[in-house]
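Z., the sequence and structure:
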Amino acid sequence: MLDKFLIVGSKSDLASRNIITNLIDIGQFNLYIIDEDMLRTENLDPEKIKQFDFIIFVSKHKSEKHEKTLSIHAPGNFKEVWGGGKEKMLGPASALFEKHLFEMLVKEKENSDLSRYSVTMEATHHGPLIERPSVFIEVGGTEEEWKDKGASFVVAKAIRNALNTWKENPYREIAVGIGGPHYCPGFNKIQLTSNIALSHIIPKYVAPITEEMILESINKTIEEVDFVILDWKGIGKVEERDEIIKILDKNYIQWKRISDIKN
């Protein structure tokens, strides 16, 4: 049962500072603000983290293509470490809370004048690696967006509303996603319009997708995973797809294609 939530921000992160400022203005929350990079595990106090059931990291997202996004993702590294954490290790994730927060973020964005932004999930990436389940909610993708007070206000309201309305739904189906690009258009639709809640997403660019990656994604989802969803066209070559299916069948893991999901 997720009951006690901690919001972590960093003074070194412009978007994070703005989100935290808005949170302070609109409500009372358990806040943990550090001076350093919050993506690095060593900058966090583990004893502080252990006092809570779930951690929400508020941060910037850097986009090389300057895409304006409000995004959500679980932390972890499928291969080498990028921005903190440990190699080939994922953080615990809650599919149910990620879905709930994503729904609130979409709703708040639609009720705002931020039409220039898109709301998206991202594939699992970067640290920190902590014991408690967590999620990142971010404003991207350049300094112009990080200092956009309208964007940070929408994120703050989404967090407030998610916490105020949070209730675990035992009737959701729980899944892990495999395939597709970093911004997850197929999985976004599933998260928003179906009964399925997604936790970790393994993107195509970490290929070859291994048994270790798949099992780590399932084992680091705090809810029991019902099946894996494959972005069929977003996995790559037929041989790569066949290898993934062989791994799933070997481990008695049920799987579906995105096209099998009824919204």
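The domain at 5-165 is CATH 3.40.630.50 (Aminopeptidase). The CA atoms of residues 47 and 131 lie 11 Å apart.

Let me know what you think.
H.
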